[in-house]
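Submission sheet (multi-component)
Chains listed below:
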Amino acid sequence: MKNFQINSKILYGIIFTTMLYGCMQEKEGKNFDAVISSMKEMSDLGTVEYKFTKILKAEDDATWYKVGARKMLINSKAYVKAGVDFSQIIVESIDESKASIKIKMPLGKIISLNIPPDEIKVLFSEAALLRNNFSNKEINTIQIMGEKDIKLKIKDIGIELEAAKNAKNFLDKWLRMSGFKEVIII
Amino acid sequence: MIKTYTKLIITILAIVIGYFVCAYVGLLPSIKELFKKKEIQLKETVLILEDVKSIAQFFTATAYEDIAIDTTKQILKSTIMSAFSKSKTEPSRFVILAKGICMAGTDLSNIKTEDIVVNDSCVSITIPSAKILTTIVNPSDFEIYIDDGNWSDEEVKGIKVTALKRIERLAISDELLKKASERTKLLLTQFFKSIGFKQVTVIEIE
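Outcome: structure written.
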């Protein structure tokens, strides 16, 4: 019987500690301010920037369990920077007597796609009488769909070619400024 | 009485079987299709090219930051709720998670002939100091964690911009600019050495 009393005291203790810990967890959860950081070295020379506009036309049509449709139009801007990997530039040959240099350039590549949040504007939003307006989560989902579409479409524009062409011009100028009279970039 | 029930059961069975046959043939949507969550559709629109400009930005360091922004505001309680309490307002909370990329480096677009001084096998190059070139937090980098429905689109946009600025501040406090500056100097030194210069001096000015 005494053993049982001790055991029940331990049990209450465990329950109380667990509850207290549970409350502390909740409090911590509400005030989280988590920050995770990491860093990476880069060596990209950005040579071109494209600015795009995309109108996102979202529709949530009526079905048998959704009475009425919802529509939304969003205008978003996208900035694409492209260039070459500077560390991949290879010096093929140098002829000091002729002040000539031959350089091999890497292919152009997309460095970044930026869709600034302050340049995303909801132009129009409409919901049928029995439907809720688009929630913030849904608006963000529409924007994510738009981002995916932009990522797909920029592949066919030839941004990389323009970036490589500009990189050649940039390097040609720099090498001539450094004293070379003949610059061959392949 | 039994006859009526039998008739009813047969009718229901006939309807159910009829439905399944129609669904199988494709005349009616299947049950799976009927209760499938219908997603919001994005209609096809063109991507309009607004501007193309040449740049010369040397990206040399990137910081990746994951942050959470917890915002609370006071909203007016509904008339029924306020009748039972002293306070007329109640807190409304919005929590958003953001993953951002902050890219730093040197803007080389304004380098002039006089900034590169060549003296035999020595070269001296003057470049501007490193700066933040781009901070990116795209829509897919945001996750709305808590939203009780009292936050307008404009308010959410404001919070997202705050997140972006905070990511930039964090990257700077993590010494991103110092790292970018060091790497720019290293890469330029390596490049000028590879084209034949024996001594390379990279001077950074404010």
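Remark: The mean pLDDT of chain B is 90.
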